[in-house]
Amino acid sequence: MLKKAFNFRLYYALFCFVFVLKVTCISLVEDDQEQFVILETIPHNVDAFTQGLTFDIETARLYESTGLYGESDIREVDIDTGNVIKVVPMENKYFAEGMTLFKTGSGEKRLIQITWQRGEGFIYDADTLEQLDSFTYETSNGEGWGITYDAEAKEFIVSDGSSWLHYWDRDTLKEKRRKQVVVVLAETKSRGGIPLLTSNIDKLNEMELIVEGDAKFILVNRWLTYEIYKVDINTGIVAQIYDMTSLYPDRRTGDVMNGISITKDEGVYLVTGKQWDAMFLIRFLV
Predict the structure, then answer these.
(1) Most distant CA pair in the chain: distance in Å?
(2) How many CB atoms lie within 10 A of CB 65?
(3) Using CA of residue 169, residue 173, residue 179, residue 183, what is the dihedral sign?
(4) CB 273: neighbour CB atoms within 10 A?
(5) pTM, whole model, 2 decimals?
(6) Does the pLDDT of residue 32 top 90, yes or no?
(7) What is the separation of C-alpha 112 from the centre of its chain, rounded to a whole number of angstroms?
(8) Rounded distance, CA 174 to CA 176, Å?
(9) Which helix (H) or strand (E) holds 20?
């Protein structure tokens, strides 16, 4: 009996050691390794409770969705100066969330925006910011947080503050499938190649689709953290975690990081946070 107890404790200790080792290494970088570099700092309206950023590469126009009841709006922002070019306020009953740019099947540029707890979204003309349509939707918890667009697949990817990603058809706005975001804690896999030991990553917020070769990822903010997760959109597996703590040290408790967009330069991203006084052009180093 003592021998069995000893063996159990030994195996348990070894398991815990491997578990902790894997958890420690999921960021895939050393603690002292530089993960990003700031290329430029741009002023940002400190009253903007940023919920979404999206950039039109063809026209160099930057759009922002801002939240809070009674303060939500959609706006165009000068990416060079941070000045607000145009604002379209929303009704007080809406708490705006993420927004992304897309093209319709006939090539018109549109903005799609979701809201927090009402299950309602809106379609805007990207040139005039005129609201063209509205729609309803469902998610795993009835909420809407972040949204991005996969032009090749003609589908939106939506977060709701949980660990689930929802994939919507562009034309019908109906959900096609869901995928849960996880970090892999051990390399052990099933016969189908699926990791057996994983941990769900919740509080997924604003995000942006990126393409690297044949692979597609989202860069997604995680609410109440200063981390950006790089997630494979086909598997839901986290490929990288970026610690952005040093980006904006002069923040208040509620001023969490939120807002990430591509720019005209490949590999350069625009990031900011809720009611931050600055936006940053950055490049990841890992």
Answers:
(1) 77
(2) 29
(3) positive
(4) 26
(5) 0.87
(6) no
(7) 15
(8) 6
(9) helix 2-25
